[in-house]
Amino acid sequence: MIWESNASLAPYNTFGIDAKAERLVHLESEADVAAYALHPDGLAKQTLLLSGGSNMLLCADVPGTTARIAWTGRTVVRETEDHVWLEVAAGESWHETVRFSVQAHWGGLQNLSLIPGLVGAAPVQNIGAYGVELADSFDSLRFFDWTRQEIRTMDAADCGFGYRDSVFKKQLKGKGVILSVTFRLTKRDHRFQTSYGAIQDALASTGVAPSVESISDAVMAIRQSKLPDPKVLGNSGSFFKNPALPAQEVTALAELHPGLPQYPQADGTIKVAAGWLIEHAGWKGKRVGNVGMHTQQALVLVNYGGASGPELWEHAQRVQASVFEQFGIQLEPEVNLIG
User: What percent of the chain has pLDDT over 70?
Assistant: First the structure.
C-alpha cells in the first residue's frame, strides 16, 4: 500500500485532467484492501475509489482519500471440454484480458476488444460493444463489503445487470469494491455476433471467416479508425448512452429523419444511435476552445489539451440541449461526473 499527498490524477484518468487528490493510496493487493478499510486515513475518509479512470469526468480536485485499484492476476479456476472459467483481478487491463482470452482461442469477449479501463470497473457499467455485453460471458465476481469486512461471491442475478447498469451503480454504490471477476468462456462451438456495426464489412474486406481472433482484430481495426487513443487525445470513449425508446416514437422519428440507425431490443424498445443524433445536430468534429466531439465519431467528447472538467461538461450540456431541441431526445451521459 503506497500513499501520496496532493497527488495529480492526470495519469489515472483518460481525459488527462490534472485534478489533485488530497491523499492518493495505491492498493496493490487484496490484503491492502482489508488494511485500507481499517486505516484511520483510509475508508473512513474515502471520497473516490479509482479504477482505470476511463469512465469518469473529474470536475474538481478531490478532497479526502482517493483509493486506486492496482492489484493484478489471472487464473483458470475451472475447465471442461467446452468451457473455461477465467478469474481476473480487478486491477487488470480490460483490453489486455480480452486479448489474453483471444490468444488462447477462448470465445466470448472478442467483441469487447480495445475498450479502455480495468476489469473491476467493467461489471459496474456492464460494458458492451458491437452487440455484446460483459453480462453475456459473466459467471461471478468477488465483492469486498466495506461494512461487514467480508467477501461476497455474486452471480449475474445478484449483480442486476442492465444496459450500462448494475447494482453497483445503485444499491451497492459505495458499499464495497469488486476484487475479481470470473468469466465463462467457450472453447468450441462459439456463437459469434457480427451483425452490429461494421464487423461483417471488415471481415468481408479481408476475406477472413468469423473466428475469435478475426472478430477481435476487426473490432480493433474499426475502433482504431474511429476512436482517438486516450494517450494521444484525452477522452472516455462513448460519452453518452444510446437511448432506448418506445417503438412508436422511433417510427415517427424515422419518418422525419430517414437513415436513423435503429436496434430493436428484447423488451420491445428500439435503441437509436446517439452518435448519429449528435452528428446530425451539427456537432461532429466541431471544436469549441479545447473541447469538442471527435471528427471520426460524434459520440466521443475529447480534450484537445488543457481543458478542465467543467469545460468538458459544459460542452456536453451544449450537445445535449442541441439534440433535445432538434430531436426531442434527452441524451444521458455514460460517464460518471466527479466533483
Answer: 100
